[in-house]
Amino acid sequence: MAGTLTTSAGATSLRFFNNRRLSPANSTEWTSNVHIRNQNYTPKASLHAVIDEPFVESTTMKTTSLYDVLNVNRNATASEIKSAYRSLAKRYHPDASGSNRNDDRDFIEIRNAYVTLSDPTSRALYDLKLRTGFERRAGVYNGAGVYAGRRWETDQCW
Amino acid sequence: MKVKLKLKGIPLESGVELERKAEQLPWSSEIFLMSEEVGYTVASDSETTATKEETEIEIAIGIDIGTCQCSLAVWNGSEVELIRNTRNQKLMKSYVTFRDQSPSPVGGVTNQLSHEYEMLSGSSIFNMKRLIGRLDTDPIVHQASNTLPFLIQTLGIGAKPFLAALVNNMWRSTTPEEVVAIYLVELKALAEARLKRPVRDVVLTVPAAFSRFQLTRIARSCAMAGLHVLRFMPEPAAVALLYAQQQLHKDSIADSGSEKIGLIFNMGAGYCDVAIIATAGGVSQMKALAGSCIGGEDLLQNMMHHLVPDMDTRFASRGLEEIKAMGILRVATQEAIHKLSFQPSVQIDIDLGNGTRVCRVIDVQEFEEINKGVFEKCASLVTQCLHESKVAKPEYIDDVILVGGCTNIPKLKSIVMGICKRNESYSGINPLEAAVRGAALEGALASGVNDPFGSLDLLTIQINAHSIGIRADGNSFVPIIDRNTTLPARREMLFTTAHDNQTEALIVVYEQGDEQQLLLGYFKVVGIPPAAKGVPEINVCMDIDASNMLRVMAGVVMPGSGTKNPVVPLMEVRMPTADDGHGLCADALYRSLGSTLDLVTLHNKLNA
């Protein structure tokens, strides 16, 4: 089964989809910057689960779609998205004067959201996924917690 | 240096005080532990008072170490101020003179040259920015060893070149790091005298072409001089920050609606950088960055070789006569190039001694022909940057910002303006001070200064100038973090073993430079459970934080083994780890290990 290697404010942790952590990660730091999207993974049996991007998963929890990350509406215009990105960068970028400069992570998330939503094609794809994702996920999760075989292929573009 | 400890809201200064307080508190054993941990900082901080520490932030100063000139600037609370030396200069010559009589070498910050020839007598070392962190196989080092009056010996084996200054008719060895450190000590003393406070944190501007290895050398020089590099800033990023501030002043009403695309072209004596930025509301997002080690020094060397074609052999012995002749040639050529920026032709008359006299007229056309290669390289950097920035048409560029001494040269100006299809360049910026002013702004930002009037409501979102990756798929370079990736950045990629029952894998990290790949470091992932090739998953993650520190992490996972745990502890390595002679090291690694510890790319990027 696969895991992802990520960094959290100076400490490394190998995270797994069932949210089991190994490695000597700093536990206080960990809880201080909770990322909701990492909290709700169900164990999966697919060999290709590694492909799954965390934020794709998060769409099942209404809390963090990319639009929520940027704090904009689903039908925001390109310039609204751009200015949302800039104003968030001013708050969360480690170099910005007002930011709490302990964590690069927030800005990386914001940046990732912006990269997807600022490009019309990837935004359309994401919107599609957002809509279909809800229905399908709901069904899958009610089952045995195992994904349909083809699922990873559609998510590969992430 | 400052260590602040707060216990129940009481700021504590020294270990002594801490221990005293600890006696009054019930959890004293724990506090004793803490006081021991911070014990070594006690002595240096003992004079600072509690209130001072609470209220005063040390504002990092901005330093622009140029190949030819240096400058210092600092945020004074309301604006950026350039610091002048005792001779009232804002731009100070970059060189260090080694002398016999004086106790220590002196640099261009304090020293007064009676004539430029003094700098060219072999006792002064300059052009350090082009030499630092380069190996003796580097063509830049070879050119320098042929054309500079001091001694640079190269063996061409991938090790550090030997550098020496002439003191009392004796070649005395030194290193580029030492020379830069001596210079920085002078800058530091100057800043401390002007600001009347100790100076430790600095923001240094660096060329985009600088490798991570070169950055570590500069950081080492800073450490030798007692300075701490808070941020390295590519010169265009510093200029972008200054531009963002100017735009913020200009259109404070129309905030984020009007995004401006700027092209920054920076060429000084040593390096050329190009960047495309998109600026709105005080935020400059860098879209593309490119750089190369070409500059005024190349124009000068080409011109010298044109005037004295046999100069490399003629001056090879570096006797006193040769050094003197080299100095004369250099000064005369420099003057000629300067004049050619303003007049159509120039008369050159140089007496090189031994009856050799160079006497001729050179016109602009000839000068441009001699330096065709340099101009072509500049043009290709601009086009490359435009292409990578995905700005669809050059017409979309709102401002062309020219900085650096070389942008005075009409040909260079016309090349850049031609590609951008513009007639006028951006005029609001001083081409020689832009970088250092930007660095001082970044110094204030990174030190956490808040300006009540919003003048520091700024940000440059930087990008990575070089791609970083590992060796895999049979000795080829597989990028993990691509160039022009926004920083801070984190990318991961999955690899697998190349052989059956392979239990170890070598992670060799490279940075893709302008022309070559540079070894940053390497480490082994061990304890891979024996399995058929292609089965174990090796996750390699690279992370660059806001201060540009690179960490490489690796872990092994066996799919389908029932356990989701990594089989061995993870590896986390700060890069670069390779030291001087990393060129030799890369060869040795491949020679002795070959493909036995190879990796193969398993999937495409996980989070591209």
UniProtKB/TrEMBL annotation, chain A:
Bilayer-crossing regions: none
Entry protein name: DnaJ domain, Chaperone J-domain superfamily
Species in which this protein is naturally found: Helianthus annuus
A cellular-component GO term for this protein: chloroplast
Pfam families: DnaJ
SMART domains with a match to the protein in the record: DnaJ (SM00271)
InterPro entries recorded: DnaJ_domain, J_dom_sf
Domain J: 65-130
SUPFAM superfamilies, A to Z: Chaperone J-domain (SSF46565)
UniProtKB/TrEMBL annotation, chain B:
InterPro entries reported for this sequence: ATPase_NBD, Heat_shock_70_CS, HSP70_peptide-bd_sf, Hsp_70_fam
Organism: Helianthus annuus
GO biological process: protein refolding
Phylogenetic lineage: Eukaryota, Viridiplantae, Streptophyta, Embryophyta, Tracheophyta
Protein name in the entry: Heat shock protein 70 family
UniProt family annotation: Belongs to the heat shock protein 70 family.
Keyword list, A-Z: ATP-binding, Nucleotide-binding, Stress response
One GO CC term, this protein: cytoplasm
Residues that span the membrane, as ranges: none
